[in-house]
Design a protein that fits this description.
This protein is α+β, with helices and mostly antiparallel strands and 437 residues long. It has a single domain, classed as Cytochrome p450. The chain has a five-stranded mixed sheet. A hairpin with a 5-residue loop joins β1 and β2. α6 runs antiparallel to α7 and α9 packs across α11. The protein is globular, with a radius of gyration of 22 Å. About 2% of the residues have low confidence. It binds protoporphyrin IX containing FE (HEM). The site of protoporphyrin IX containing FE has 25 residues, from α13 and α17.
């Protein structure tokens, strides 16, 4: 049994570098070892990073009972998401939950969420200070958190959020610290340490979520939010989701959908502000009612600044990947970053060139910001729909300028984000549109 040639650095150095500068490590390893390389993680597990589109296709179209996504995710995420999360489940249980959630995320459902997304964005822009630096990343997080609270949890008005919003922000801020990844990697549950503030927060949040679920069960008034659809969903045996399942999926959707979308939005604006001709073209097209370039900007942002550098599949049994026979337990990691930065697929891969997407459909094995196969991001349509609404509103209603030079990529929780929250100044901002306008 042979593993692909790869760096065999001492595990602590390897994991440390991976956590602190993942993109640099990926680039250097590809330059040295090619499209497939491996390294040894804690507990002797091998990670095989894959940047070759043909092998990525093999993995994404392979047997999901052999290529497990939940088992790998669970190592880090189960303490916070629980045992019934779409992200941590595999096999039949994953399929069941995915079927229950899918209807709420179908493309045609998106129009239902459009008004909320627009209102939240408009009022957020209306609160931006003029001529004073503020954090783009923070503003985008405020928008995407409110969007999830309204469209997923069904909390329409701020007074309904109660303590929940404050507690969630506090939990997400703590979870954003990359050092929190270490206990998970060592097999220690970071929430098991009773004195951690996180443990208390998690309990407080769970209590509030169970109260929301109980209230919605008592008065099943319908509603158009994701929770309403989850409450109404039935599996093949006519069974509804339990309270624990609902809790775990609500936290999953929040964790998977809030910061990911916010950080991608911050990168999109960062790239546009650093490329004035692209920004001007986008503004002109939107003013003329054309949206194709907006889609190109979103696709190019997700390619050039992917917020998640790779996805994971853990082998349930020995597996042949190309020329290598890999042992059970190996973690395969198709790399979103490496696949999207191939010069043969994307000339000048480090440059932000939205035009490259005009009239072009993304290839699912080089453009994979949402992963692939049966585990592809369930929020893919939701995220792109929200990005369209928020970007169009910001570009049409505000004039921003960057405070610093090019932004360094830093790790924030599960995402790769622009350093220092990407500070900007609003030079101009149009008044909020009224309902009649
Ligand atoms: C730009 C924003 C987003 C990006 C880049 C993103 C990216 C990803 C990626 C890479 C995966 C793993 C896919 C795989 O293993 O093949 C994933 C899974 C997932 N995402 Fe997203 N995501 C985004 C937004 C959202 C939103 C808005 C939601 C929901 C509101 C969401 C919910 C999920 C869920 C539940 C999964 C697990 C799917 C499964 O295992 O079946 N994501 N996402």
């Amino acid at each position: 049994m042979s593993l692909p040639p790869g760096p065999r650095l001492p595990p602590v150095v390897q994991i440390g570098r991976w956590i602190l500068s993942p993109l640099k490590m990926l680039e250097e390893c590809r330059a040295r070892y090619g499209d497939v390389f491996s390294f040894k993680g804690f507990q002797g597990r091998h990670f095989v990073i894959v940047g070759d589109p043909a092998l990525i296709k093999q993995i994404f179209t392979g047997d999901p009972d052999t290529l497990l996504a939940g088992a790998g995710n669970a190592v880090l995420l189960e303490p916070i998401l629980g045992k019934h999360s779409l992200l941590t489940l595999d096999r039949g249980e994953h399929l069941r939950q995915r079927r229950l959630l899918l209807p709420a995320f179908h493309g045609e459902r998106m129009q239902t969420y459009a008004t909320s997304m627009r209102d939240i964005t408009e009022s957020s822009i209306g609160r931006w200070p003029l001529h004073r630096p503020f954090s783009l990343a923070q503003s985008m997080q405020d928008i995407t958190l409110d969007v999830i609270l309204r469209t997923v949890f069904g909390l329409e008005r701020p007074e309904q959020h109660g303590k929940l919003r404050t507690d969630l922000v506090a939990m997400l801020d703590i979870a954003a610290n990359p050092l929190l990844l270490f206990p998970g990697m060592l097999g220690i549950d970071p929430f098991a340490i009773p004195w951690l503030r996180l443990t208390k927060l998690k309990r407080a949040i769970d209590d509030q979520l169970f109260a929301i679920i109980a209230e919605r069960r008592r008065s099943p008034a319908g509603g158009t939010d994701v929770l309403a659809m989850m409450l109404a969903a039935r599996d093949d045996h006519g069974e509804a989701m339990t309270d624990i399942e609902l809790r775990d999926e609500l936290v999953t959707l929040l964790l998977a959908g809030h910061e990911t979308t916010a950080t991608s939005l911050a990168w999109a604006l960062d790239q546009l502000l650093a490329n004035p001709p692209a920004l001007e073209r986008l503004r002109a097209d939107l003013d003329a009612g054309r949206e194709e370039y907006l889609d190109c900007v979103i696709r190019e942002t997700l390619r050039v600044r992917p917020i998640i550098p790779l996805v994971g599949r853990q082998l349930a049994r020995p597996y042949q990947l190309g020329e290598w026979l890999l042992p059970a337990g190996t973690q395969l990691a198709p790399s979103i970053y490496l696949a999207g930065h191939r010069a043969d697929a994307y000339p000048a891969p480090d440059e932000f060139r939205p035009e490259r997407w005009l009239g072009v459909k993304p290839d699912p094995y080089t453009w994979l910001p949402f992963g692939g196969g049966v585990r592809r991001c369930i929020g893919m349509a939701f995220a792109q729909f929200e990005m369209r609404i928020v970007l169009a509103a910001v570009v049409q209603r505000a004039r921003l300028s960057l405070v610093d030079g090019p932004a360094k990529v830093v790790r924030r929780g599960i995402t790769l984000a622009p350093a220092k929250g990407r500070m900007v100044v609003a030079i101009e901002r149009a008044a909020q549109r009224t309902a009649a306008a």
